[in-house]
Write a structure and sequence with these properties.
Layout (H helix, E strand, L loop, with lengths): L18 E4 L3 E7 L5 E7 L7 E6 L2 E3 L2 E7 L6 E7 L2 E2 L4 E2 L14 E2 L11 E4 L2 E4 L10 E3 L22 E4 L1 H5 L13 H4 L2 H10 L3 E4 L3 E3 L3 H5 L10 E7 L11 H15 L3 E6 L16 H9 L2 E2 L2 E5 L14 H16 L5 E4 L7 E2 L3 E2 L4 H8 L7 E4 L19 E4 H12 L5 H8 L3 H4 L9 E3 L9 H4 L35 H20 L3 E5 L30 H18 L23 E4 L8 H4 L6 E6 L19 E6 L5 E4 L8 E7 L9 E3 L3 E4 L3 E7 L3
Parallel strand pairs: 14-15, 14-27, 15-18, 18-21, 21-24, 24-25, 25-26, 26-27
Antiparallel strand pairs: 1-2, 2-6, 3-4, 3-7, 5-6, 7-13, 8-9, 10-13, 11-12, 16-17, 19-20, 22-23, 28-29, 29-30, 30-35, 31-34, 32-33, 32-35
Length: 713
């Protein structure tokens, strides 16, 4: 027994909630483990985190949950766990009480793993894993006792309708670190993201929902730290209930909790939703060679997919060394409790699930759309009402499942990204697939009963080139990652305007700028939910690095000092977002039917050949065709307002010309109306308003897009 343990009483307590729950009189501790023989709570001095105050055994058990109540403990105290049990890696059992553990349910965590400490539970001797009796405490982060006292006032979710949503994917530090109007001490933090200057930019841009790269407490891999790098993106989770201390300007002993809540409150007050990119598919503990920091030491066979042929190893569907086993009831419960915690305690509005296919594997590992994980979310009265987005793939067998997720989920649509890039790059034979992508990808989402908003449309995201780099580089330049440029994916949909990288050639720069505008305009003119990568509207570059996950540097931070080109792109993006918001035909609830609805004057969608006639089957199959028109009928939306009145919007005609030559297109016949107004074009920087007579002609310059609005009758 620790010499000062007698100063603390341990009462029986209760087995739920799990983790450490602080009340006015003390703390209840409860931790589940099927095979553990003992669990001990270690208390540490918050002023001297390495100084251990007490070891408190939890002697009461209920249904495999070890629990105990310790009176008089206060918020701010630090703690960790030591868990006894069998050491039998061949059976998947890796208990080692010499390895201090972070509480998986910790509400806050302070400190980062020190890879110089003996964090691994074993040493390898003659090819065998041998129990390591060295103590790891000096190198392990501490869990923090936290009690919720935040004043939310009248905060409420903006409740943005899916069909109205415009998602802005951002990294807390990456977005705010270089913002000149954010105070120095708040840059790169939650407070910085909630600063009025940042919020003003988001509101003026017109986005509705900020999707944050992981903000759960994470740990960098040892091999990165050895190179002087870090896991900047944060897809390496340690604490699924704890806001990442990296982004706190006010402290890491619970202050990060308050600061995160204040950020959410400020964003909500501006009408902006907060969505979190969450990583429940794996943890930071890696494979059998990785550290014992938390889950592995608490109950390895429950938390992780083990290889049944050799239970000392892991099944890896994620490419990160391990996979959380969502088949297990305890793991499913943990994930649901974590998600619910972020909704109820932090007021977030939804989640994007990284490598979501892993969570839906059941039985022997096949994807199962009726798996327990989906069932849990579907029946949960809290989680079933927030926005749920899946990244519908992982790296395991049969892992690509676009369109395979059930109702209630939207999905990242990488098919949209590929097709739009290929079309605007000038590839042949893209028109048929482009038609599906522009119209909401019904080929993937209609059969599951979902609507166009289930398609999260994007051209760029955090993982890959920025928009500027996409049109400036023909290949990746990841040398700063110190892996010999072998990491990252060769993006074979990147553009090449004749010059690689930065250039002063005016013609090349003009072609690149037009390509950026084509991609932005297409994104916001497509049915579905658009997602914009933070900084793309500001002409941000990563100098050709398409895998900047380990770059906590100016390479990853948004540069707010705009040149003339950046200002033009920002203004153009704002115009595209505003056009979408003001055009019911672009935010319709249902898929196109290709026919008139009720008393509609026009069909809801008509596709036009440059000659002015409607598309025929052979046009869709024509590999040479790189110019097409998409007419959207403003009175054929099929959407009604809350009072039941039919919503009528302006009819739009979008011409897309990805070919190398200008095309003189013929406009639809006079039966559509007398005149068209030019509302958007990508071949000029001017915001022109022109009127074109119906049944006349209209020039669509090479590699450009034109949007015409039908004048009311």
């Amino acid at each position: 027994m620790h010499p000062v343990s007698a100063a603390y009483e341990v009462w029986p307590g209760v087995p739920y909630p799990l983790g450490a729950t602080v009340d006015a009189n003390g703390v209840n501790f409860a931790f589940p483990s099927e095979a553990a023989t003992a669990i001990t709570v270690c208390l540490f001095d918050p002023m001297e985190p390495r100084r251990e105050l007490a070891r408190l055994p939890l002697v009461d058990q209920t249904h495999h949950v070890f629990h105990g109540y310790v009176p008089h403990l206060k918020p701010g105290l630090l703690y960790g766990l030591r868990v006894d049990g069998p050491w039998a890696p061949e059976r998947g059992l890796r208990f080692n009480p010499n390895k201090l553990l972070v509480d998986p349910w910790a509400r806050a965590i302070t400190g980062k793993p020190d890879w110089q400490a003996p964090l691994v539970g074993h040493v390898v001797h003659h090819g065998k894993e041998v129990f390591d009796g060295r103590d790891s405490s000096a190198g392990v982060p501490r869990s923090v006792l936290v009690r919720d006292t935040f004043d939310w006032g009248n905060d409420r979710s903006p409740g943005v309708l899916w069909r109205k949503a415009v998602i802005y994917e951002a990294h807390v530090k990456g977005l705010t670190q270089r913002h000149p109007d954010v105070p120095l001490q708040q840059r790169g933090t939650y407070a910085g993201l909630g600063h009025p200057a940042v919020i003003e930019h988001l509101v003026k841009l017109g986005v509705t929902s900020v999707e944050l790269l992981p903000v759960h407490e994470c740990a960098s891999e040892g091999f990165l730290l050895e190179k002087g790098l870090t896991n900047f993106w944060g897809y390496n989770t340690l604490g699924f209930f704890a806001p990442d201390q990296r982004f706190s300007s006010s402290g890491s002993h619970g202050q990060q909790v308050t600061e995160f809540k204040a950020m959410v409150k400020a964003l909500h007050a501006a009408g902006l939703e907060v969505l979190l990119d969450v990583v429940y598919n794996h943890t930071c503990e890696g494979n059998q060679l990785g550290p014992t920091l938390s889950f592995r030491g608490l109950d390895n066979p429950t938390w992780y997919w083990l290889d049944e042929r050799d239970r000392s190893k892991y099944r890896d569907f994620t490419g990160c060394g391990n996979s959380l086993d969502a088949r297990q009831l305890e793991v499913n419960k943990f994930i649901a409790d974590s998600l619910r915690h972020w909704v109820t305690e932090f007021h977030v509005d939804g989640f994007r699930f990284d490598l979501a296919t892993t969570l839906a594997r059941s039985g022997t590992g096949e994807f199962d759309p009726r798996c327990d994980f989906f069932a849990v979310l579907h029946q949960d009265p809290v989680l079933s009402r927030v926005k749920l987005i899946s990244e519908p793939w992982d790296v395991g067998p049969g892992g690509y499942r676009l369109g395979g997720f059930p109702a209630g989920f939207a999905e990242w649509n990488d098919r949209y990204r590929q097709t739009v890039r290929r079309f605007w790059r000038g590839d042949m034979g893209q028109v048929a697939d482009l038609g599906y992508r522009l119209s909401g990808s019904s080929d993937f989402f209609r059969l599951s009963g979902r609507r166009p908003s289930a398609s999260i449309n994007y051209v760029t995201c955090h993982d890959g080139f920025t928009l500027r780099d996409l049109v400036s580089y023909g290949r990746k330049h990841n040398d700063a990652n110190l892996e010999g440029n072998r990491d990252g994916t060769d993006e074979n949909h990147s553009f090449n305007h004749g010059v690689e990288g930065e250039t002063g050639d005016v013609r090349v720069l003009a072609a690149r700028e037009r390509s950026q505008k084509n991609l932005v305009a297409t994104l916001f003119l497509s049915l579905g939910t658009p997602m914009l990568l933070a900084g793309d509207e500001l002409d941000r570059t990563q100098r050709g690095n398409n895998n900047a996950y380990c770059q906590d540097s100016e390479l990853s931070w948004v540069d707010w000092a705009l040149d003339e080109r950046g200002r033009r792109l920002l203004e153009f993006t704002r115009r595209c977002v505003a056009l979408r918001a003001s055009s019911p035909v672009l935010t319709r609830r249902n898929f196109f039917q290709g026919q008139t609805l009720d008393d509609s004057r026009f069909r809801d969608v008509v596709w036009f050949h440059p000659s002015g006639r409607e598309f025929e089957r052979g046009d869709w199959e024509n590999p040479e065709l790189r110019c097409l028109g998409m007419f959207l009928g403003g009175d054929a939306i099929g959407t009604r307002d809350p009072s039941g009145q039919k919503i009528v919007g302006q009819s739009l005609l979008v011409w897309l010309n990805a070919g190398p030559h200008d095309v003189e297109v013929r406009l639809p016949p006079r039966s559509y109306g007398e005149a068209w107004s030019l509302v958007l074009e990508t071949a000029t920087d001017e915001a022109r308003v022109l009127t074109v007579a119906c049944s006349g002609g209209c020039s669509v310059p090479a590699q450009s897009l034109v949007v015409l609005a039908l004048a009311p009758p």
